[in-house]
Structure formats: C-alpha cells, structure tokens
Amino acid sequence: MKNGFFRGHGLGNDYLVMDPKELSFKLTPPAIEAICNRHWGLGSDGILAAVPSTKADFGLRIFNPDGSEAEKSGNGLRIFARYLHATGKTKKTHFTVETKGGLVTIDLHLDRRGDAGSVTVEMGRATFTPSALPCILPVKELIEQPIEAVGRALRFTGVSVGNPHCVLFKEAGASWSREDLLTLGPALEHHAIFPKRTNVQLAVPTGAKELTILIWERGAGETQASGSSSCAAAAAAVRLGLVTSPVAVRMPGGTLTIDVASDFSLTMKGPVAEVARGSLSASFVRSLR
Q: How many structural domains is the chain composed of?
C-alpha cells in the first residue's frame, strides 16, 4: 500500500510501522514530527522504519516523535515483530532484527487465531559503564552516583541496554508521583552529564521479584510503558540487590517480565497488539514535502 502504515501498541506504547520503499516522501525529522503529532497527524509514540540488513533477517530504524532516532525499543521491537508476521513479511516465529543498538533475537508466541499476541526479545547485555550511555562522569561504573536536578540531590544508576537509561530508586514502601516524573524527567533527560540525552525511570521495588516504574522517554516524554526502560530498571535493581530475576516490571500501561542473567544479558517477554492499517491521504503527504 503506497504511503501505508501499520499501527500497533505494546501496553499502550504505540508505534507506526512504515516501509520507506513504499513512501513517496522521506522520513525527515519534520515529517516524522508531523505524522506523530496527536492533534495534526496520525499520532504516535514513534515510527518504526523497516530497512535492509546484511547482519540479520530484518533491519529496523526507530524514530522518536520529535524526529530524533533511538537505538533500541523493546515495545517497538515487539510491534515490529507482529507487523512482520501479520503482513506476511515472514512466516517464521524465530528470527533476528538489527537495530542501531545491536542485533536482537525474537520469538513469536502465536494465539489460537495465529496472531502473535506476545513476543519474547533477547535484548542484549546491560552495561553500567559511562562510555556506553554515554555519561561524562569519571567513574568506572554508574552505580548509585550523585546527581542534582531541579534543586534536588539524588542518586542514579546509569544503564545502557543499547540505548541510555538513568534509573532512580526509592526504598520499598515509598512511591514516586507523576509530578515527580514531569519535573525530574525532562531535567534528567537533558542533564549536562548525558551528552546524547537519556531515558529516565523512577523505580520502587515492590516485592522480591517485582518493580514499579514511571517512565520518561528521551524524545517522547511521559510514556505508559517501555520495554528497554523495563530492562534497564530490572538490570539496575538486580545489580543493587533490590530484587532477583525474573523481574515483573509494572508500569502504568501494564507489566513486562524481564529475565536478568548472571552476565546481565536480558530477555523480555510481553504482549503486543495490532490496532489498524491504512494509508496517509494525498493531501497530508503533500504537506510533508
């Protein structure tokens, strides 16, 4: 379908999948921003662009709604996997996808109708080294490092899972508010120690194998759910001894299960849904050029 799209969501985190070969316009930052606008465009938390790969079965580029590019997205990968199977791009239930944040392995779990209702993604290995995010702090690892934002003295654990994350914990029994997220999220995303910005998670351990998190995504803002954020928060919590694997990560949109191996390799499993397929109107496309 010319100028077509596939819309899906993972726990309320929604993406549009597009194939650049089938578009009559380029996915420039202004075009991406216009398409993702929830009032003037289709509305989306981002665009997933199917691209060729010489290293994997499929290639994927991930764009934030502000037009910037993300290295990896757990929810995006599940939606992309559903798209590939639902549109007949593959009949396999086990395949690989190359992202800017590394190559991942995907397993589809088909329901009785043959739809990929849930997806398992091997997300790669978490690392806490400053160069991986990047972060300019002169330390060996970003474990419970001090940081100041909006006049508050805080501590964060920095994690890269192919993209950067800044995880802040409160002790069990405490909680973070949405006001905390809306205040700290943008301040930490753009903090001077993160030269390429960062995703932010406000986390609380709520059980021996359970976390609750609020999410501020780089380039997107407040998000109902995030696969890579869940992976980062789970890895940080395991590293700090707050929980043990596998970890149920609860978010406003729902729950993902994250397995954290002894070497901090991460496996994510969670639901995914298709919402719609369609095409952009000719007049809207003209406005993008």
A: 2
